[in-house]
Structures are given as C-alpha cells and as structure tokens.
C-alpha cells in the first residue's frame, strides 16, 4: 500500500528527500520574508497618500481599514497598499481578514513581490498570520503553479503555532498532482501522516485522479482499496474520478462496474457521472448502450427529481435532439413546478454552439435571462467556444467587446477560448492581439492560458516564438506542466528536431515532472518518422519500467510507421502485441490498413473492409473517406465509378484534405485549368485554404504557363473528376450553411446583455 505505514518502505526515500528539501526551503523562505527591507521614501509616501486623499477623501474615513477594503473591492490594489502603509505609519494594526482579502487581490493581479512584502511585515510587526492567512497564501501560490513556495509555507505554519490541517495539505497535494509532480504529492502524504493529520476523502480523490491521468491504473486501484480499508468512505466525487479514469483509458466495462458499485453503496450519481459514461459510449462507438443506461437510472430512481430533468436534457443533447430539449425547457418555464437549473440550460446552449447553431443558442440564452437565471461563466464561455470553433472570430470578438463594455468580469477562460479559436484558423496575428488584450484588461495569464498559447504556436510550427513565450512564462514565476512540455516536444518532433525533444524530456524529469503516456507516444512517433525504429522500440520496452502501459495510440503509431516503411512483418507483430494486451483496434487502426490496401492497388478489399467496419459497429470517419477517395481517383475508371457509388452511402464529412487530394488528382490527370476554377469555387463556400492548398495552386499556375491548360485527358475520366468535385462542394456548402444562421449578434446582445445583472462568474 502507498499511504499506510506498512506500505511505505519503497517510498521511504521520497519522505526523507521531502524532509531534507523542506527544511532548506523553510530556511530560505524565512530569509526571504523576515529581513528588514529599506524604508520607502517618506516624501514619496506623503505624495501618494495626498493623491489618494484628493481622489477618494481617504483622510475623512477613519479608521483607514474600511477605506482600504473599499479600495480592494474596487480593484484599486496599489491604492489599498498605500493605505496599508499609512496605517502602519500611524501604528495601526490592520486585521487578519483585511490581510486575507489583500492576499487574494494581490494574487489576482499577479503582484507576488508586494504580497511577499506584506507577509514579511506581518511576521515582523503583526498581526501574526493565522491558519486562514497561511491557507490564503498557499492557495494563491498553488494556483500560480509555485508548488515549492506553497509547500514551504505549509511547513512554516507550525513555527507560528498553526499546525497545518487537512485543508492546507490538500491544497499542496492537489497542486503537485495538477502540475505533474505526483511523486511529490505522495511524499507530502507520507509526511502528513507523521504529523498526525489523517488524509480525508478529498486527499484520496486527488491522488486517485492523478494516478489515472498518468495511466497508472493498478496503483489507482490500490489507493482506492486502501481508502476504504482505512475507514474513509468514498463519495460521489470519488466514483466520478474513477469512472472518468476508466473511460479515458477505454475500459468502459470497468467504468460501468464502478457505476453499479456506486449505486449499490447508496451514493447518488450526478450529471457528471452520467455525462462521463455517455461520452465514453459515444467516443468508442457504443451509442446503443446510452439508451439502456438512461432507462436504468430512471427505472431505479437514482437521481433526485431536480437532477432527472438535467439528465434527460443532457441525454437529448448527446443525441443531437437539442430542439426537443429546448422545448422541454421552455415548457418547464411555463409550468409552476419550478425553474430548470442553469446546468440544464448550459447543456443545450453548449450543444447548439458546438454544432454551429448560434441562433438557437442565443435564443435559448434569451429565454434563460427572461426566466431570471443569471448566466454562469460556463454559459458565456459556451457561446464563445461555439463561435470560435466554427471560425466566426469576428462575432466572438463582438461578444467579448459587448461583455467588456457592459462591465462583465471576463475570465481567463474566455480569453483562452478566443486565443485557441485564432490558432484553429491559423490567425497568429489575431492570437497575438488577444494575448495583448488579456494583459490590457488586467487579466494575468495563468498556466492554462500559457498552455493554449504555446500549444497554438507549436501546432502552427512557430517553434522559435513558442520557446520565447515559454521563457516569458518562466520569468513570470509560473511553472510549466506536462501539457506545455508535451506541446513543445510534439512541435520539435514535427519539425524533425527529435534531439531537442529528448532534451526537453530530460528537463521534465530534472524539474520533478514525470513524462506521461502522451509524452512517450509523441517521442515514439518522432523517432518512427525518422526511421529510427530501434530507438522507438527501446522507448516502448522502457514504458513498463516507468509505470506506463502502451495504449491504442502507441500501437497505431508503430503499425502505421511500419506500414509506411513496407515492413509488414513488424506491423503484424505489433497488431498481435496489441491483441495480447487486450487493446481493441479503433478506427485509426483500420484506416492504417485501408491505406495500405489502397497503396497496394487492392481497392476492392479496401472498400470491403469499410463495409465490414459498419457491420461490427465501428463508424468510418473523414480520414476513412479521404483514404478510399484517394485510391478511387487512381483506380480504373469503371471500377472507380462502382466504388464511388458505395462511398456515397457512407455518412462522410469532407474537409480541406478532401479538397486538396481532389485538386491534386485533377492536376495529375491534366485538368489543371479546371482545378484552378474549382479552387476559386471552393474559396467562396467559404473554405479556409491551408499551406498544402496554396502549394498545389502554385504548381497549377506554373503548369498553366507552360502548357496552357488541358492536355489529352480521357473524356470519361474528366467527367468522373467533375462529378467528385460537384458532390464534395455540395456537401461543404451544406456544412457551412446550417439551419437558421441569419442573425445579428449586435441585436442579440443588445437584448440579452442589457437586462442582465452584472454577476457573471469570474472563476
């Protein structure tokens, strides 16, 4: 066992290491906090206070603390600090609640220097910090990712007569897990037990979640079992964490077993439980099980009456039955049985926005406001996300501007969504503008915002800029997590610089981060792309030693790489390994084999495999369609027509890759002039061209200069390519013009936002 005394032997070195580093950190922290600082120029202080007095009549508000609190409430933090210094000059001792409020404000502004100075003054002249003050500081540093300072404060508490409690320990343990320092979290748990503070259900929930995120299912199960053996009863949150971990690992049967165990213990599942399992069914092609799950929870009355409506609404949204869900909500508003919850409205608004039906999303939002429900941060973020994911950045910008002008609190999440939206359409300058706007509005970027920014730059192959932002993040005192390192490693691997990627992996370990399954898969992919299969296999063999279990992505990477290298022996070998591991093939695995068949000109077998996919319940995706379409274009004309007829029966969604391969084949077959004409038509859909599209068109224009157009093309082949172009552009036109999109965001926001209380959540 990991946490109990009898099971700590192999973790003893962690505890000793933590004790050694903690003593050093505490001494360093005391040196930082307590030394006497140079006095501020009294003349400068008097001028500052005089300016404040003129602006808010501060001198007429004795004592000063209420005025300082009012300044903090108005987000005038520098002025509040000046008022605090004036109180100190008058030998007034500000209260502990005021200091706690000031700490939160300083953390929100990112002013760590002033915060440390205020804490140093508390230590030197009072009031002595109590456990609430320490917990406010620990929470702030944990949110910034400064886990080392938070842990040092934890051990510093006892020197001021405040024995750290389970709340303070849980904050640091959670921060360690969030920022990829799970080993440090377990070391703190060991030290926690030695202080006589027992872990509670929150502690166990955090540890179990961290182990699942690392892919360490075996240890997660051990901690879960140990939790119950130690007399700590799991709650709904515990089971939600375990169910979510199993679903993300693709182990749906285990997730359902935990759901059954949860209900047998008399615990009530919530909407998160239901949505997690449904998401797993949808992701892994088992949509038929969703209806059975819903019937079961309703039959056994597992939800309260209030939650039953939320679950029904969520179920309809998963089935894309948003119109029915919205109608149920509107009827509920007219009934006298109570107002539906904000969660129910958010489910439908998010579903509409996700599918691009912004009119319906805003109309339901309007109904929600008229019913007297205040939107949550999730409501507005869902509207923003829907706009951004559909490339409607202008409307998203208008929405943000309206929110700012009307005095709403704009969270970091909202800016992060807009930032991600810009990168999705390749608008780097727009992303830079969003980043500057975030700073201008006083929203200090956190680790999540930096993660989105760095990941966007890496995906766009702007590695120099990504490294500069990474350095800026470090200068601000924020600590990178696994996601940031994985983004950089992925970017360097895509750029062909695997040596730099491996250096970053070593840096991760040096900084106390444990590379996860995503890190390992990225490095394996980078090595395989360079043909370094021996090195990739060495990494694969070392996975178990590092506590990692290969997943479907690991196997697909090897299978796909060996197929491209025409090494079918090793490809089949990894298929067998995957089967022995109990890892079921997914649509990506099948796409790899279909691509191999198409490359070998075995088109009939490729299409037959597609037919078999449908029969076994695996849904073909756009990659499947593009792969087969590419083979069809190169096949014999008569057979290509037959295969195309089969493809039309598939529910495919063409994308820019489809357009690029069709343009390429038209140019290859001498239809260069027609390819240019079709490109012009696709640009009016509208369709955002990528770098590959522009390269195809550049070659087409050069070819036209030399040949002047069509050169000896078979008439039947020409008509066939025109037919493929027609059906593709028709599909893409329907996708870009979904139902009822004729609305003016200015009018919607003038109506909806004008009547809202200024109470949108900032967190």
Automatic annotation (TrEMBL):
PPR repeats lie at residues 130-164, 165-199, 200-234, 235-269, 341-375, 376-410, 411-445, 446-480, 481-515, 516-550, 551-585, 586-620. It comes from the Eukaryota. Signal peptide: none annotated. InterPro entries: PPR/CCM1_RNA-binding, PPR_rpt, TPR-like_helical_dom_sf. PROSITE patterns: PPR. The keyword Repeat applies. Keywords: Repeat. Pfam families: PPR, PPR_1, PPR_2. NCBIfam families: PPR. This is Uncharacterized protein. The lineage of its organism: Eukaryota, Viridiplantae, Streptophyta, Embryophyta, Tracheophyta.
